[in-house]
Amino acid sequence: MNRFPSPPPSSRRQFLGLSGGTVAAALLGAAGCSAPGGGASSAQAAGASGTGAKTLTKIGLDYPFTQIPLYSALVKLSTAAGKKRGVSLVTTNDAASADAQAGNLRTWVAQKIPAIVSFPMVFEATESIAKAATDAGLIWVTYGGSLEHQSADIQFNFLKGGTLLGEAAAQWAQEQLGGKGKIAFLTDDTIQLGRERTKGMIDAFTKAAPGVDVVAREQAIDPDTGLSKARAVLAKHPDLNLVLGVTDAAAYGAYKALQQTGRATTDAKTFVGGQDGAAPSLLAIKQGTFYRASAALAPQDIADAVVDVPLAVAAGKANPSVQVPITLVGPGDTARIDVLLAQNA
Amino acid sequence: MTTVTSAPSADRLLPAPRTRAHTAFQAVRRQPLLPVLVVMVLVFQSTTGSFLDAGNLRGIATDAAAVAIVAVPLALLVISGYLDLSVGSTLALGGLVAGWLAGEQHQSPVVAVLGALAAGAVVGAVNGVLCCYLGLSAFIVTLGMLTAVRGFAQQLFPLPLSGFGSGFAWLGGARVAGIDAPVVIAALVLVAGALFLALTPAGRHVFAIGVNREAAYLSGIGVRRAPFALFVVTGVAAALAGAIKASVLDSVVAGTSGAGFELTVLTAVLLGGVALTGGSGSVLGVLLGVLFLGCLQNGLTLLSVPTFWQQMAQGTALVAGAALAFFGPRLNR
């Protein structure tokens, strides 16, 4: 009589059986797809550690911030760049977790993926894994910094990116506002990358435009937070002239907040700028709005480095590390913006 | 026709002040967050001087609207003894579908929003079937869906979407009788939720299911159908909130849109006095929880409190609010 609360046992068993079967089939399928020609043969192709040139056929790209748009563009472009050079690309799913990243990297080292390009979330914690990789004769390329145990690195001058944006905004303030006005900074103090960008941006601006009042410095890296923080700042300072963001995403949120207070998109007394070269911001710059600048990274430059640096190490090239350039784009750089947008498409 | 009114008697007049005080005390006892919210608003106004400015209040209301739209159905779900932790990812999916339809497919805003709602309904229905009809744990199912839906959204839309057109911008930027459209939508959702709980048999069934599912079942209440419907409505509400956010920002990113939103909404619901174990709660409490979070965030920003101090203050205030919500109802026992 009492048919509730549990569902009928048979249907639950059926469901669990079906689910288990499906999962098992998927795992077997995945294993079947990945087993042949995997790390082992590639590792053999890469050869044991030695002094001579190696043939590299596989690169592991370990980029933990899979949630940001750059990740998709980077994987797509790196895969294409690798294909041109006869190299296949494999990736991790770290989900922005340092623990997951460490686990995935250890798996790769045990699997002997011949070349690993890793963006460590915690550099100190990754040192031992990099050592294990290099001890095993694998190529280790550190992305976004340097480790003691590495084959090479891919560096970004985030401080310079922030400085470029700060200087451009300061110059605009001197020319358009006579060196007076109000500025808000959207910053990030949680990771090294953010701290460098923030420092470059604020130091450069305050040095070159000391007459502009800094009315806010708020943590924001995404559009939602940029929007709500800018709204609050605008409630207190409706005559805000400039907003500079540690990311384009946060600055874009501020751009929308300014619009929502009734400011025309071409307002001559307003400047918004960010960093990254994100597509919505680039479009706003191209359209001649008061979103006027972005310190942009070109995804293709990064993708090329992801493939070329391990290949250069494998080829025995001396000093194969690279510095990926960061350039400031403004309303006059439409050709450059089109190139960046195409890379992000 | 004359109206007969009884003359006020001493018996009816004299106790009035005490009665009013008692009524006020009962109100505070039922909604302990209310006096805290009032004090917080007064403190922020006196220290910033601009907290109660119309422009700032408008900003708080618009920011809080998306939270309220999702918090109301989520509160009903929690009252019925279930939980949905996937609303942040559903919000992202809804925003992406709406933005894609409006921007890349050049569909009308109505079609774009309906597409988003359909996506949210599908997610809610999957949650509902797994939890209500197959009896799986809502915590685990919706936690899994949080990740799965996010991955699905990123697979479908790996790059940011932007430029949705002026028609779609209406949803987030238009004003109805001087009030921002998202706030109007949130108000409608709040009123509908309150009326549903207070006036409909189904609303009473939600409480009954949350208090004791087996007893509710034996009383003839559809103990699977009602929570299933609430899962679907919660998914639809999350997708609607996503469409609104996409409209406000004129852009949406699969990886980051709505990240952490589920915790914000759940915090608002619990602060509002909804019991995580089910069976009790009110829409008014949820509204207070939503306003509490919105005012706290905004006030700390107005005060230019440094980032990490803001985190500490927010965390401390939430714990204090939770303690108040717990001990408040026990004040006059």
Automatic annotation (TrEMBL), chain A:
Q: Which family does it belong to?
A: Belongs to the bacterial solute-binding protein 2 family.
The organism of origin for this protein: Streptomyces achromogenes
Give the signal peptide range. Answer: none
Record keyword Membrane present: no
- Keyword list, A-Z: Signal
Q: Where is the Periplasmic binding protein domain?
A: 65-317
Cell location: Cell envelope
InterPro entries per record:
Peripla_BP_I, SBP_2_dom, TAT_signal
One Pfam family linked to the record: Peripla_BP_4
Where does it mainly reside? other
Q: Which domain of life is it from?
A: Bacteria
Kindly list the organism's lineage.
Answer: Bacteria, Bacillati, Actinomycetota, Actinomycetes, Kitasatosporales
**What's this protein's name?**
Ribose transport system permease protein
The record's SUPFAM superfamilies line, in alphabetical order, gives: Periplasmic binding protein-like I
